[in-house]
Design goal:
globular; Aminopeptidase; seven-stranded mixed β-sheet; 159 residues; single chain; alpha+beta
């Protein structure tokens, strides 16, 4: 079984790889500017295996003793192996060591896999943020995909 062995701080030199994975993993990926802003404003990590291979990343915005998970992604070629849960647990441990008390996040209502991971890692559902995420939906009348909005589930976890 592949394991996530450690996390390291994300650097600007990681952004080409991060953007490539972001575009592979999401229909509505963050932009380079989004990641650059995150590097300036928060904690950002790359998840690595024992061989030092990058397998995913996370961006976290911090305010006082609170951590807000903005983006957590495992590269598509590594998905489905339990690495998302390992990554989240490593991240929770790192934040707890740094004296953060609570972690927040939003997740698409349709993202069942992520919801299961978050709940297994101690997150509780706190509410819904209507029309938060962009998404595609098939419009029968137009015979095409149209851009619409999807709700987010708000979640939190004590650290």
């Amino acid at each position: 079984m592949l394991e996530l062995n450690y996390l390291r701080n994300m650097q600007e030199s990681d952004l080409d790889w991060v953007l490539q994975i972001e575009q592979q993993a999401y229909d509505f990926p963050w932009s380079r500017q989004g990641f650059e802003n995150s590097l300036d404003q928060g904690l950002n990590y790359i998840f690595c295996n024992a061989d030092g291979e990058d397998i995913g990343y996370a961006c976290v915005l911090t305010v006082l003793d609170e951590a807000h998970l903005l983006n957590l992604c495992i590269a598509p070629k590594f998905q489905g192996r339990g690495l998302g849960k390992q990554a989240l647990q490593k991240l929770q441990g790192k934040l707890k060591e740094s004296d953060f008390n609570i972690m927040f996040l939003e997740v698409r209502v349709s993202n069942d896999a992520a919801l299961k991971v978050y709940e297994r890692c101690g997150f509780n559902r706190d509410g819904v943020r209507p029309n938060y995420y962009s998404c595609h939906e098939w419009d029968e009348a137009k015979g095409a995909l149209i851009e619409t909005k999807e709700d987010a589930i708000l979640m939190s976890c004590p650290l």
